[in-house]
Amino acid sequence: EAKTRGRGRVAFFDVQLRERLQRYLELEQDLRAAVDHGELWLAYQPIVNLHSNRVAAVEGLLRWTHPRHGTVSPEEFIPMAEESDLIHSIGAWVLSTAVEQIATYRDKFDLDLRLKANLSVRQLEDPELPQAVDDALRASGLPAKALSLEITESALMHDPATAARMLQELRRYGVRLAIDDFGTGYSSLAQLLRLPLDSLKIDRSFINDIARSRDSEALVTSIMAMAHAVDLGVIAEGVENASQLAVLRRLGCDQAQGYYLGRPTPVHELAGTIEVANRRAIIE
Ligand code: C2E
Ligand code: MG
Ligand code: MG
Ligand code: MG
């Protein structure tokens, strides 16, 4: 009997594996057309400044509405795009679209809202990136200092020398630079300090337990002390409730982002999301 059950389990995993593989191949094949068919879009999530208690920025987060599979996460399709050359056209589309949409939004609401956009490790190796960023800014009228580019710690550590050169170059155009998912990439502090960064985003895995665990709080406290000592602004991501927000505020964190303040939202609904975030930022 145990034997039959065992065999059943093997068959079950086999089916699951086959379905996963099939989905992978299908998505990979459809990604090229997704760009041309307008299936990609950007959601924007508010980021609150904890000193002014106002929404100061939004992060552009890529979405793919697949005709059969519905919304596909960037965690799933960005790696596919990175394995082909599609990441370059997708990355360029993200930059020009986000910069254009937020420039328009700022004009419409007369707001000094900043934009954060994510860069792939592959874009860091593209010598044409700085020019593309500058072109997008010029076409939209968004001031360079209103744009902050986020690069994950692991992307920066993939090839630190190339990354450092690229960041220096981007910096010359006046854009700001942030390290994303900090704490997950095993970087050496010495290497990080050599990069021209403006801010550091603490990974949400560290924020998760911050209101429940002294150890988490101590860890975040020390990351923040280190960042502030070298003049980096600190942003906490993954803030899901009021107690986490209260702890971060008490510790002197500069900015916060998370479902508690607001979820990623299509641009036509962003005004409502920002309004709620502004209210949440004050009430505790
Ligand atoms: P990220 O840049 O670290 O973005 C934050 C992620 O955390 C987003 O996931 C966001 O929806 C999610 N998040 C925000 N608040 C909370 C919260 O309170 N709780 C939880 N559990 N999650 C929260 P998303 O949108 O699925 O994006 C995942 C990752 O995909 C991003 O992580 C980023 O690394 C990558 N990505 C997204 N858009 C782009 C893009 O345009 N280009 C590139 N290269 N990568 C992108
Ligand atoms: Mg990010
Ligand atoms: Mg992050
Ligand atoms: Mg992340």
TrEMBL record:
Residues 24-278 form the EAL domain. The chain holds residues 638 to 921 of 921 of the full protein. It comes from the Bacteria. This is EAL domain-containing protein.
